[in-house]
Design brief:
binds zinc ion; four-stranded mixed sheet; 14% helix; single chain; mainly beta; six-stranded mixed sheet
């Protein structure tokens, strides 16, 4: 009996999209596998290109795999350059368990084996791409193509979109400084796989002479393009040069090509805590405490700031000590007062909304 796809010209496989997180739960029989998928979509927005695809998963649905025999799935750039390729073989579950891909004649990175049963309908297929190391050089609309018997069939598209990040304002920098988990510096290495020639660049809350002495280039000083020593690779720095700072203030766990330096080491936090305690015991003037907090904005981290303003004017007459716009976009006004200051004056509220007493 013919399968439905050959009768109706429906492609035998569909590209469902890329996702950031996936968890496969095995329940014995492959047919019973479950997937928890987060963020499935056909548009990947990135601040940085070249973009390493290792952190993404591509999700496909294949109709009745046993009917198709071996085929390839390829991701092609807008200029038809091959970004990645999977050679796919299908084996019947009834033929017994296969533990090694070499049993099926597949052994290269990108080789995939699908275990399927007769007469199954749509089969979810998520190939392992981390061993291929695919990299997307530029934003654009990329095609997902199924190749079988020398014929190409487009089964979907994946759009890579570039988001330009604005430079940080002073209040945003103050907010990043207040976050103990934020990173003050990001280093990126671009390498030619042939001659191993590499260029290292960094972005930070400010320039760092030590990095430049080590030959690491400030991201804004990168050239538009540069050829490697062997001439086979041309590094394109347009997006890194515009946007590397966008990665600051974030927490990444799985980006081996990008390394971060933590803004606050634990010893430094202990030191700040001791100094604050000593300062409070000395009954300081308000201005001294304000200056200390301004120099150590980690003390404001508990308010989850997105932006921090110091001595911001309220209406025309007053200034508040600290104003915070938090992650929920609420405005917090902080007044620093001694504990013996009355918060109520002549039956009217004191000008502060929140008072931090010391
Ligand atoms: Zn090279």
């Amino acid at each position: 009996m013919d399968n439905i796809s050959s009768k109706t010209n429906v492609p035998p496989a569909a590209f469902l999209g890329a996702c950031e997180r996936i968890n496969s739960i095995s329940r014995g029989d492959p047919i019973a596998n479950q997937y928890n998928i987060l963020g499935l979509g056909k548009v990947i927005i990135s601040y940085i290109f070249p973009l390493d695809l290792n952190n993404f998963k591509l999700v496909f649905a294949i109709f009745d795999p046993l009917n198709h025999g071996p085929f390839k799935i390829r991701l092609l750039s807008p200029k038809s350059k091959e970004i990645m390729k999977f050679d796919i073989a299908v084996l019947s579950v009834e033929k017994g368990p296969v533990t090694e891909t070499s049993n099926s004649g597949l052994s290269k990175p990108g080789d995939c084996l699908i275990m399927s049963k007769e007469n199954t309908s749509w089969f979810i297929f998520i190939p392992e791409i981390s061993n291929i190391n695919p990299t997307v050089e530029e934003p654009g609309c990329y095609r997902v193509v199924l190749t079988k018997d020398e014929r190409d069939l487009c089964i979907g598209e994946l759009i890579f979109a570039y988001a330009k990040a604005p430079l940080f304002s002073e209040p945003q920098i103050a907010a990043i400084r207040s976050n103990p988990l934020a990173y003050k510096k990001v280093l990126i290495t671009i390498k030619c796989n042939v001659c191993q020639d590499q260029i290292r660049a960094y972005a930070g809350l400010e320039k760092d002479g030590k990095e430049e002495a080590r030959g690491v280039v400030w991201y804004g000083d990168l050239p538009e393009t540069q050829k490697c020593k062997c001439g086979k690779a041309e590094f394109k720095f347009k997006y890194i040069r515009e946007n590397l700072h966008a990665l600051l203030g974030k927490v990444f766990t799985n980006k081996p090509e990008v390394s971060f330096t933590k803004l606050y080491e634990i010893a430094v936090l202990e030191e700040i805590s001791k100094k604050l305690s000593a300062l409070l015991n000395s009954e300081p003037e308000e201005e001294v405490l304000q200056k200390f907090i301004q120099e150590n904005p980690i003390l404001l981290e508990q308010f989850s700031p997105k932006e921090i303003f110091y001595k911001a004017p309220i209406l025309t007459k007053n200034k508040t000590d600290i104003v915070i716009r938090n992650q929920k976009n609420e405005l917090l006004l902080i007044e620093l007062e001694k504990t013996n200051t009355l918060l109520l004056k002549k039956r009217r509220w004191h000008s502060s909304a929140i008072s931090t007493c010391y």
